[in-house]
Amino acid sequence: MDQAQRLRQLVERKKQELQQKRFKVITVSSGKGGVGKTSFVVNFATALSKRGLKVCVLDADFGMANVDIMFGCMSKFSIIDVLEGNKSIDEIILKTIDGVEIMPGGSGLSKIYTIDEDKKNQIISQFDKLNDYDILIIDTGAGASENVLKFIEIADEVIVITNSEPTALTDAYSLIKIIYLNNLNSNINIVVNRAKNNQDAEETFNKICYTVKTFIGKNIKYLGYIVEDIKIGQAIKKQTPYVSEHPNTEFSLCINKIVAKIMGIEENNKNKYTSFKDYITKLFKAVGK
Q: 54-80: per-residue pLDDT in tens?
């Protein structure tokens, strides 16, 4: 009996360890607008979901919240309805046909800076209902506002989207510089969007990598690239993820390579959170600083 009990305890402990490693928070940002950040989030989340992971996207772009629109499922409610007590957290979540769940945030998220402790605790308790996600993707606004930096600071992994345009590279470098100089996060990954090919993408990454190494003395990681595809605009107009419409294209292959890479990242940097509730609790602490 003692041996059987010890075995059950061992199995339960291993199960808890696996659950603790499972939940990953990825913040996606960019130095400037117009580089395809939200399009990446939509296709990245869809590709992860197709791998059997339960994925939630928190739309944290205070100014241009449009993740739901790009998925073709316009939201009636948002996080502001939860903050004001009009809806519960599970009532505002949207589910796409590919299984990705969306939590509309936008400008409503700015209210987390003003609510009192009792209200924060009430909201945090609601996130007990959302304890089965594998990955939370935060789609932030562009630039280095305080709001964006808070979401970057408390992420497990940060993905910065850029392209080969000089202004995009300059602004991406500025964002990375602020992250490092303020010791916000060391897990910075670069995705080069709208690349002509692999060589073009690597040349673009090497430019920003050299600049970061030379002037900040830090290293950034190359997560991959997304090839330029004129059909992506058609998918956006149809409000359908491109990887669902055209799964066998080079664009979709690029997205899936990035998915495989992010899933294969070893936990040298152990995930910070065990659940959505755990993450939201940390977020409230961060905005209270």
A: 999 999 886 677 898 899 888 888 888
